[in-house]
Write a structure and sequence with these properties.
Family: Belongs to the class-II aminoacyl-tRNA synthetase family. Alax-L subfamily.
Helix content: 25-40%
Largest sheet: 7 strands, antiparallel
Shape: elongated
Cofactor: Zn(2+)
Strand order of the largest sheet: 12-11-15-9-10-14-13
Oligomer: single chain
Keywords: Coiled coil, Metal-binding, Zinc
Structural class: alpha+beta
Distance between the termini: 66 Å
Radius of gyration: 31 Å
Subcellular location: Cytoplasm
Protein name: Alanyl-tRNA synthetase domain containing 1
Length: 543
């Protein structure tokens, strides 16, 4: 399978250039930082290989640069050789790869920024050090076993790549005599793991058996060793048992029935059969579930036959059409019994804590309740604390004053934007008068400004009025993307407008003597001007 480029974000600082290679749960990470380039490679949990090689815009101090790995990405702090010299781009060549983007969330002016930069470097280094030095997962002696391969057949796996595009992987569906890897179902994603150290990329249920997708074939009849990814498994156990507990408490306290749920990658959602849930109800549910966690209530799993009278006492939303065999019942002592095929903790104390983040409007008079359980709460707290520290450094005030400080900044920004808009309008009027009183340059007047918008161009066109002269206005990056407006005689604009958009590799529309739109190639403005002048010359010759 061909290597891919990892999506990369970067931003510039007086002393450092920051880069983030966005690969979650990476393995086999290698980072080589040299004076003029960086080479990065790794694998993701699906076995996809990533490789990026970047020739730097300028020389760097490789000895004073570092990289840190987290579960979400790999961040590099590259020390500039010449400090306080801005980098207009990351790469040596003025060509932007599709996988490289500016991190606008962290890009800002430098003025007074060195203290913030230092605080940010220290914060990221401290946070990523905590993640990268995390101890090994619990022993998995009871989470691996030996079994036999029953069948192996060619197959394809439809998945989503790191760039968000759908991909098709070629491989094999392996069926084992028995398995401990959970296939996706019941709102819970599937397990990950290995068979003889070969990565299992997906586990799905097909009738009474589980299909394990691998990219390496396994010979039927062979004895193999199966091991589960415990960190992923335990996370799913915490979220699924947390859902059972919240569902039971919400029903018991307020009669709020669960109609469905989803175990998401970062958060989980329970759909409640109610058009609204109050903040007081949410607080009461959260308090009750955490009390039960502190009570260390046991969680038991039993199997009942389909004709067992006790089945009628068990909560559930029905069985799959292809269900076969006994019914699996998960019981939280004195709280809930529920038909379920998923993986669960053996005691509520293993959940540690549950945090309900809030509610959102669901579909068809439903309400979605969003929650985290166990280790996800700790990770959420770590992210929130990291954000709080960064905001404290940026806003230069305590956490309790963050909201007021941001409100003041917003008010100041709105006032500046209003003043800027008024100045831009005055500038447009002044510019229009200057253009109107200048020679018409062969029947074509052109103007480009880096700053401006559609309103700016239309004010100029309004002030100049319905002249016989063609008016071609553009705003934006001189060589990149921007906006354009063509004004003049209606017949000429109707003819030339689409051709102007085509030259600028953009799109637009128009009526009544004006054609405006978006362009991607402002560097071709001279070609448009030549096109307009040729048209004017041809019209003059015909007259």
């Amino acid at each position: 399978m061909a290597r891919q480029h990892a999506r990369t974000l970067w931003y510039d600082r007086p002393k450092y250039v920051f880069m983030e290679f966005c690969v979650e749960d990476s393995t086999d990470v290698h980072v080589l930082i040299e004076d003029h380039r960086i080479v990065f490679s790794c694998k993701n949990p699906d076995g996809v290989e990533f490789y990026n090689e970047i020739e730097f815009y300028a020389k760097v101090n490789c000895k004073d640069s570092q990289d840190k790995r987290s579960g979400r990405s790999i961040t590099c702090f590259v020390r500039k050789w010449k400090e306080k010299v801005a980098w207009p781009r990351l790469t040596k060549e003025d060509i932007k790869p599709v996988w490289l983007s500016v991190d606008f969330d962290n890009w800002r002016d430098w003025e007074g920024d060195e203290e913030v930069e230092l605080a940010q470097v220290e914060h990221y280094a401290e946070l990523l050090k905590k993640v990268s030095t995390k101890g090994p997962p619990p022993a998995m002696d009871d989470l691996d076993f030996t079994t036999t391969v029953v069948s192996c057949r060619p197959a394809e796996l439809h998945t989503e790549g790191s760039n968000g595009k759908k991909e098709v992987l070629s491989g094999f569906q392996v069926v084992l005599e028995d398995t401990l890897l959970f296939p996706e179902g019941g709102g819970q994603p599937d397990d990950r793991g290995t068979i003889n150290d070969i990565s299992v990329l997906r586990v799905t249920r097909r009738g009474t058996q589980a299909d394990h997708f691998t990219q390496t074939p396994l010979t039927p009849g062979t004895e193999v060793h199966v091991r589960v990814d415990w960190e992923r498994r335990f996370d799913h156990m915490q979220q699924h048992s947390g859902q059972h507990l919240i569902t039971a408490v919400a029903d018991d306290l307020f009669g709020l029935k669960t109609t469905s749920w989803e175990l998401g990658r970062l958060r989980s959602v329970i759909e409640l059969d109610s058009p609204s849930v109050t903040a007081e109800q949410v607080a009461a549910i959260e308090q009750s579930v955490n009390e039960k966690i502190r009570d260390r209530l046991p969680v038991n799993v039993r199997e009942l036959s389909l004709d067992d009278p006790e089945v009628e006492q068990v909560r559930g939303r029905g069985l799959p059409d292809d269900h076969a065999g006994p019914i699996r019942v998960v019981t939280i002592k004195s709280v809930d019994s529920n038909m379920c095929c998923g993986t669960h903790v053996s005691n509520l104390s293993d959940l540690q804590v549950i945090k309900i983040l809030g509610t959102e409007k669901g579909k068809k008079n439903k309400t979605n309740l969003i929650f985290l359980a166990g280790n996800r709460v700790l990770k959420w707290m770590e992210r929130s604390h990291g954000t709080e520290k960064a905001l404290t450094a940026l806003l230069k005030c305590g956490a309790e004053d963050h909201v007021e400080a941001v409100k003041k900044l917003q008010n100041s920004s709105k006032l500046l934007q209003k003043n800027n808009l008024n100045l831009l309008r005055d500038l447009a009027v002044h510019t229009a008068h200057s253009l109107r009183n200048s020679p018409d340059c062969g029947g074509v007047i052109t103007l480009h400004r880096k700053d401006g918008d559609s309103e700016f161009m239309n004010i100029i066109a309004n002030e100049i009025g319905p002249e016989e002269t063609l008016l071609f206005l553009t705003v934006g990056d001189e060589k990149g993307a921007g906006l354009f407006l063509l004004a003049g005689p209606a017949e000429a604009v109707e003819t030339l407008g689409p051709r102007v958009a085509e030259v600028l590799e953009g799109k637009g529309a128009g009526k009544k003597g004006r054609f405006q739109g978006k362009a991607t190639k402002m560097s071709r403005r001279a070609e448009v001007q030549a096109l307009l002048q040729d048209y004017v010359s041809t019209q003059s010759a015909e007259e």
